[in-house]
Amino acid sequence: MSLPVLALLQAADPQLPPLHFWPWLIFSLIKLLVVFTLYMVAAALLTLAERKISAWIQDRHGPNRVGPGGLMQPLADGLKNFVKEETFPKFSNKALFLIAPMLAFMPALITWAVIPFGSPLPTRWGRVDLVLADIPVGFLYILAISSLGVYGIVLAGWSSNNKYALLGGLRSSAQMISYEIAMGMATIPVVMLAGNVTLGAIVMTQAHQGWNIVTLTLAFFIFMVAAFAETNRVPFDLPEAEAELVAGYHSEYSAMKFSFFFIAEYANMVTASALMTTLFLGGWDIPFTLWDNLPPFSVLKTLLTLVAFLGKLSFFLFLYMWIRWTLPRFRYDQLMSLGWKVMLPMALAYIVIIAAAILGLDALGVPRDWRFALSMFALNIVVVFIVFGWLDRGRIVSPASSRISAGELARLRTMAHRSTLTPRETGD
């Protein structure tokens, strides 16, 4: 192979001399095509996975007629939507009506650009980082881009000129803005522990100090609940609420425009799962070892870390589907109260607690190793028991507890028992 061809294949960093710009660009384009192609295929296959999992939960078969085991069902659904008639409401704003589905989908797609999904891949020409854009403000980029998805939903509701669609869009905007604040607040403890807003640095910090799901469990809980609300999944699917609002903000959509909203929902699920994996489950880090985080890197390390990342990602995707087919929907007042009266104050208080703990441990001279992680874990256990004990208040852990007195409860039980007796047994 000639030297010019080798130069084109060289994986270079954009910070190196200008000679290496074109090789870096070629490798970036290759990663772009591979990642987003797999991303779109995964979003389509998730529709089949959800139908299969719901069938398994409900003890039925699910799709099994199109292809072996129903594997071709997503292709059949896509073909059906391509050939269906495109409809436009008579008094709709056609330009915004067409743009809205794309605006709902694009933020989830481009958020993936800064998520690292494996250890660096070494080649004979250089090192290829398994991230599309390793920018130094990747964390801030995620917060900025992920908040744009609400515009597509609001425009879909408004441009349809339909009362049900408009109400669904208004609900969605209020819900997403409410939980977006809690989600952003929940990530601040992660940044404080890492001391960096680069996602790669956050992954490496977790490899040395322990996963954040262990040391920042409450932040993970808040982020996960907010992620469910941001993706409009049960029990936070109030913007759609089929029993109340027909189909919510996409009531007037048909064919592929209608399908784009569902593709956007599953794309958001993948992105949110990847974020939870990266911020709280160590990203591509393999647990209980530093072998995968230290050079020299190898193809084997890259493959194993990629498998670890995909395994964690699949766990969260399954959790999304499990919750959907298990829990009922909130009332709208419950949804808003949870966001503003519970999640936001809890996130703010947790930031203060973690900041004080970090300052205190640093003042005591505790090094940032297993001792620091163990101290944070002990604090985290105390906080979790207090918070979840307050949230439960006798609903799950001790469901027999009640606000009425023990004497009143005994009297009601006696009355209920007497109502089942015959007059001869009671002496009446």
Features:
single chain, mainly alpha, 17 helices, 1% strand, disordered N terminus
The structure class reads: mainly alpha
Strand order across the biggest sheet? 1-2
Overall helicity = 55-70%
SSE series: HHHHEEHHHHHHHHHHHHH
How much of the sequence lies in strands comes to under 5%
Distance between the first and last residues' Cα: 105 Å
E-strand count: 2
Described by strand count, sense and barrel closure, the largest sheet is:
2 strands, antiparallel
Radius of gyration: 26 Å
DSSP summary: helix tally: 17
Principal-axis shape equals globular
Mean pLDDT: 83
Unreliably modeled segments? 1-19
Summarize the structure.
The chain has 428 residues and is mainly α. Helix content is 66%, strand content 1%. A two-stranded antiparallel sheet has the order 1-2.
Secondary-structure blueprint:
Layout: H1 3-9, H2 21-57, H3 73-83, H4 94-111, E1 121-123, E2 126-128, H5 138-146, H6 149-159, H7 163-194, H8 199-209, H9 212-215, H10 217-230, H11 242-245, H12 255-280, H13 299-324, H14 332-363, H15 370-392, H16 406-418, H17 423-426
Antiparallel strand pairs: 1-2
Helix pairs in contact: 2-12, 3-12, 4-5, 4-6, 4-12, 6-7, 7-8, 7-10, 7-14, 10-12, 10-14, 12-13, 14-15
